[in-house]
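Holo prediction. Input below; ligand is zinc ion.
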Amino acid sequence: MKSQMITRRARQTKGPVTLISKQELLGDDYCGTDKWMTICEDHGHVEGHQTLENARFFASRPVSWCRWCAEEVSE
Ligand SMILES: [Zn+2]
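Structure of the complex:
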């Protein structure tokens, strides 16, 4: 099975954000509540999300979860 790993440039910052299925990454043993995660590639910040819907939503808005992105935008 191919990994569900998508990297896209966020509209807000133009920086690359990667969306990953945590369950797929860690295997079937994974039973945490955060099934997905987004990674700000520019800053290495990782944020967990419970649903794919949320993960997609925040993937395009790194300013709301990566404080370094937030700082760049506020400058
Ligand atoms: Zn960032």
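The chain has a mean pLDDT of 90. That is the main takeaway for now.
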